[in-house]
Amino acid sequence: MADLPRAQPAVKAPARPRSVLFACTFNAVRSPMAEAIARHYFGRSIHFASAGLKRGEPNGFAAAAMAEIGMDISRHRPRTFDELEDANYDLIVTLSPEAHHRALEFARDLAAEVVYWPTPDPTATHGSREMILDAYRETRERLAQRIKSYLHRPWESQR
After folding, report:
1. Which of 53, 146, 35 is closest to 99 using CA atoms?
2. Is the model's pLDDT at 48 over the cut of 60?
3. What rounded mean pLDDT belongs to the chain?
């Protein structure tokens, strides 16, 4: 008898995360925007938080760009990874190279998936107020698209 090909084991989709951390350099623009967007789309079905390598200052352009779509981040207070000592996340999404390196260290003792989504920093934009605000809008839209597509993917059921 000829050897028959063996059936390949089914590849299981990862379990849907219950807790997601968004991380950037200062936790003042990209990660708070991502946190607010994710909360808007997924509500309380997933716990969302954000942090940075360093604590930046709240950013008025980020707040304005988010307010345009009905999301208020004006009360967000930046925090660092060091303030997350007892936190446990299933998924850590990093938005800057510096945050990615720190997240890998942070997740070393966690069973967390760490993914890197390169996201341009709109604070580097110069020009008129409208040009700067457009950069923040573009960041907001990129994050919204990425969050919706990533978190709406098929997940293994959790029993």
Report:
1. 53
2. yes
3. 89
Instruction: Name the DSSP letter for residue 53.
Output: S
The reply to whether 127 falls in a domain is yes
For residue 2, is it within any domain? no
Give the pLDDT score at 111: 83
Question: Over 70: is that where the pLDDT of 66 sits?
Answer: yes
State whether residue 72 is helix, strand or coil: coil
Domain contains 101:
yes
Coil vs helix vs strand at 10 = coil
Q: Name residues whose C-beta falls within 8 Å of residue 13's C-beta, 6 or more positions apart in sequence.
A: 153, 154, 155, 156
Collapse the DSSP code of 62 into the 3-class scheme (helix H, G, I; strand E, B; otherwise coil) and give the result. helix
CA triple 41-22-77, angle to 5 deg: 95
